[in-house]
């Protein structure tokens, strides 16, 4: 037997008990003739005392860090109590021990502030996973997963597994495909989400479905995107938007309570997509702080300042309490908005002095009365700083949004321990894809338009006005979930496919099974999916989802530990009847 | 709002309550001026009464089967009570209703004994899933899943997700591969199991891991194999075989209790692989009945009966109480053992009469004294029938095993409501692959040999003798799980790879990450994986796992509902830099 107890379990009450422990050698210290070893396992650390009688054995093969050993001995009260750990009252007086496995010196220190770089820690991920920080992240993930299941089970949701080897229906993101050996020259696709399956389950009468499920998207990886990711995928029948919002708000409240011990007695605030764009410049507002965008366009035009006069929009934010910003700080902020990612030509500012006077970087064009209007509109008080950007609508709104977030960050208003959820509702049904020069579904082609907007689908010029029964749940400025009430009638689904430029034949080829299903008694239904990786990262106070995935891939989609993807045998290619198109030799 | 209650919820206590229900029209019956509708949802069936005032609306669009409707009305006591359903005391007097979606006539009846053939029901799987039988299967699956999680959570197991896009390491079954677009000419593989990842998690100190996880094998599909299937995958550190067996025996007992209300107060029986082969002719004995194989080889040789004299082995079973089998029945059994799948040249039998006399089909060669020895050896009593097969060892043992199962079936000894679990232990480490002319791992290359047999690995001639720390859990003659204590030291793992004919370079290329991990403090560990599909099928009393999978594939690996796999666009092939090798035109 390798152990009678874990390394996190023994207390002073067990003094005198003979025990066997197994674990990893965290540290070895020698005081006189006594060796002390901290033995670690998943559950904690226990101090071991090796007395003189074991010295010969220790000399023969000294214990090193990360050695795996099993020890037998007796629990004893400890002279120097360690109040920092639950086992700090005791130690185990070792009478015999076995080295189960030796260990080489790890390539980086296995500590919270490790000296290992990203790439090295990914290569030796199995060692990185030993670090307490990473372990806590994976434990949090498991607890979120468990809380989610417990909640959904209590509400009558049933987990149903949907297939991974499905059909490729390119629309939206790129599919990963899997060549079929048994069906030559044909391919499966890995699911981007179980969307159509969960809808079919509603048609089948399962009423409340969920699944914690891997999804796959072959996209060019931006920072912190993974080719495989996990969704909490849910669907309900006979519901309206309000039912979904209420049910999943309850779920998030349950998770906050279970994981963070936080209570949210009030309903989560809701904001329309249009308001989110107007006041925050994006569809996932971080409402941990105010600092709304204020539209100064009408106020500032016609004063001879060319930047404003030529702008489609002029937007301001009130950086509260920043009137004392130095010239250097303001120059630096100006450089910040001029970076290519933001792309503004400059930054205009106005300081509100202690006496209420307003001084701006464009005093030449605006007198104090005019500037005071800026202050009134932005609700700037003495001591505040008004920051203004101007230019083309979309770019400027995005820049103002980024500037707001940056100022929020600088002012310490984005505390990772504060959680502000927000429902964003009334999303547009379509968005215009500039590259493809066509309207695409903003959410996906199964999202229903607001009933009163269905008629607008006959008029291409009014597509931008059509709103959908679609909603996102945003947490601290990050979208953690989204969903919609679905189309459930064949004629409307056909209209939708047609609106997206699909011919009836193409629609039938790709989604014939769904159109067919809608003819055999499909109930009204809707659902939502949460990004588990992202949700865990936020709850864990991190920006990087990679920290919450046991074996993540790097930004090139590689698993550097496995060295995957990799070349496969010619025999495998032959069986699959595929050839590689190799890059021509230079 | 679509409903205030479900169709399974209303009781006599709610008489007089105004309610709204939604669901599917199960049946419509007309009595005089009254229309009765049975309305169905996931939770039950409620009778609706449409009185005369709604007749005009009903006439305008008659309700058909599987129409989806919402009705409002009042709960009333029912005159003709239906004791078969929980809502049978009441009906709802409908005052208004809406057709939410019409339905075409389904292509087969949505009933337990449907008139739909396999292929048709697979094509319209979303309708097949409406059948009560299928719904109960998926509910059972969810309950098994939930019970498993609850048990493992209570024992400190943590679910950790492992990746799906991994590295192809052909060994054992064929991998499904996924071409990488970002890493040209390279491929991911889909996991056949998370084996190496769970071992790495043990190296990382996670101590107790589980995952309910999809696995993939590109095998030629035999009946009732699926290319994707679900495992309950588990691993523990600092354990010996005994710990694993005890822990997962507890898990199965918990599942039996939760799902079937069955108690197993005794420990599950255990049998060595050698005994299983000796007494049952296979490694997964169905011990719901006895009828062990009895080896008559030494007894029957040398009596001039050529079939026995030339046989490697002669095996008998005692078909209890079958002495009265007619000539016709025995001829039929003889034909049965001569079928190509069984491949025996004939069947010998001996009847034990009421008076204890024994008459055989080979009386010419064996006198009554000799036949009485057969009866003694097989423990045949008056009224019993001894069945004997003879031939080459492997084939005959398999035939005897099949014959035993067939007789068990005919005698009604294989009751689907009786559950007899069995641990089979001490499996061989290797088995000889005739086609490849080499020794392969019987379980997988990470299984540890019995310590006392490690030395035999240096002698190829003794490979067959080497036993592994490997075990299967068998339920009613079906393997539902299996596992092993793993190798956790690099030298032994290298020795194992070498024994399997892998060069050090190949071992390093394929499994370098694991060999590396073993050098940094790997603990002793072991685990087990259960086939969830199979376990559910057994618990549900079915032979076909397909019945317990929401969207299964057919025997050609096709999803006939989706029509997958299918051809993909040239654009997709171009992006992936692969060409199809098309069959030459005839």
From TrEMBL, chains A, B:
Residues 138-552 form the Aminoacyl-transfer RNA synthetases class-II family profile domain. The keyword Aminoacyl-tRNA synthetase applies. It comes from the Bacteria. GO terms for molecular function: aspartate-tRNA ligase activity; ATP binding; nucleic acid binding. L-aspartate binds at residues 171, 217, 443, 486. Its main location: cytoplasm. One of its GO terms (cellular component) is cytoplasm. It catalyses: tRNA(Asp) + L-aspartate + ATP = L-aspartyl-tRNA(Asp) + AMP + diphosphate. GO terms for biological process: aspartyl-tRNA aminoacylation. Belongs to the class-II aminoacyl-tRNA synthetase family. Type 1 subfamily. Catalyzes the attachment of L-aspartate to tRNA(Asp) in a two-step reaction: L-aspartate is first activated by ATP to form Asp-AMP and then transferred to the acceptor end of tRNA(Asp). HAMAP family: Asp_tRNA_synth_type1 (MF_00044). PANTHER family: ASPARTATE--TRNA LIGASE, MITOCHONDRIAL (PTHR22594:SF5), ASPARTYL/LYSYL-TRNA SYNTHETASE (PTHR22594). This is Aspartate--tRNA ligase.
